[in-house]
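Q: My labmate handed me this sequence with no annotations at all. I'd like to see what the chain might look like in three dimensions before we decide whether it's worth expressing. Could you predict it?
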Amino acid sequence: MNNNALTADSSAKVSLVENIANKTRGPYTPEKYGNVIIPMAIIRRFDCMLAPKNKEIAKIIELLSKNKAVTEIQIEQAVQKQFGIPFYNKKCVTLEQLVGDSDNINANFIEFIKSYSPSVQKILQDLKFREEVDFMIKKGILFEVVKAFSEVDFHPNTTDPITMGHIFEEIIRKYKANAEAGDHYTPREVIRLCCELMMSGADDELKKEGKILRVYDGCCGTGGMLTTLKKYLTSEEGFGISPDNIKLYGEEINPESYAICCAEMLMMNEEAKNIREGNTLTDDKFKGEKFDLLITNPPFGHEWKTDKSAVEAELKLPANRFVAGTPRVSDGQLLFLQNLLAKAEDDARIAIILNGSPLFSGDAGSGESEIRRYILENNLLEAIVALPDQMFYNTGIYTYIWVLAKKVAPERFGKVQLINAIDYYIDQKPKSLGNKRKFIDDKSIEKILNLYKAYDKADPEYSKIFDIADFGYTKVTVECPLYDENGEKVVKRGAVQVDTARRDTENIPLKQDIEEYVKNEVLPYVPDAFLDRSKDKLGYEIPFTRYFYKYVPPRSSEDIKQEIIDNEKAVQELSKAVLQ
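A: Here is what I predict for the chain of 580 residues:
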């Protein structure tokens, strides 16, 4: 399905859900709509998946239930094996059938949700849905809500998993009461680009037939990155890998997102148990485990002040995840990046989406600079791709895909490729989605991939190759003597005293000789200056925008003058017309 059709289809179904949300107005305030809408959307999807198979599932349940030793989990496994659905509802009825008995809807619906198998029960418990059902009964709106959802078409044959993922993410974006500024659901085309970049640089071992690929997302949200990545890896237009050879794993801190992610896994016949609820920074649910493909869109500008004590405690362990250090507490993006590096197999590929801050924030010797130094000096970074702005639903800022590998290709060793793709997009159609006004279409993805693959032969206007040392610099301290009232240098105990008021620093690129730099750039302006090399600090930054800066000459004064005259004339004519 193309972007226009996908957006139109998901938008139409989201609009239906919005109309249902309005039915709860009164008993619920807008910030509470999600308490009902999110779990009901999940239930309706499950309902639509089970509907055509309920009669056959009922026979299996009846047969296996005769044996008291058979557990509900084992019945789930039997249903999954025969029908490809890893859950069931013992009532084997649909929402439409429940609505048909309107007089008993309250009791029947409670019994209905209690009859779901263990995997679904866990999701509904995490969403605290039973309390909402009781509240809707008390306010007399349960029938209207159930009836409205029974009319929404979430059947798999009309709403594929990708479209359903869009719908879920749009619903949770609209109705999640505790949404934070850092919650940015990742557009599907950006995930596809990440997948292409990772696999384009993968060696034969990762692509080997029969290889089991373990895919990990440490901030998995509603599961969009994991499910979209698998769909593309297994598709004919993608890489044609067998679905059985791809295993998905993820951790998520937000309970609503976690529950929806588990629901997504069940819908796609994945192992929901491989999705764990927890704080990736402080409560690693996959300790010691390694993965082949790692992809994450961590929260931008995530403050980890409350996580600081746990992170620092881990730093004391010999096998901690944050070996390169820690960034400032106001932004934990580089902690999430280190988590991926720690969990990567020797031939693993990594794609992480970050904002501009990790490129340059932090002075020489700071946590951010030391983390960049670790990544660059260990040849872990292959490429950075600058994306267009206005790509995400919740923010319009520029973002960057970092492509990393534990084992880079020989020609990329000691090098980093920067790709400027900010102009590669089309307008988001048929309309924008929140702040998302731009879409990276197939042609744009192909252009970006061609730049990546061409490497040092790519168009230098959009792709540049740098040595690791190009990003490094030495921060040196420049001192000046302290003079007395007679203009003589102040000497104490045989040492010339420094004038701290004149102290300065210089960031000198690693590829430049420090003494030569000082001779040409400092001494002509401050002849008595000298360096205190004991204070030297090594720093790394990636000033992406500077490398692709294009000088635009200012407009001429005559052009500006003429524009002012024209504007004044237009204002005068408008005033005259108004007065007449």
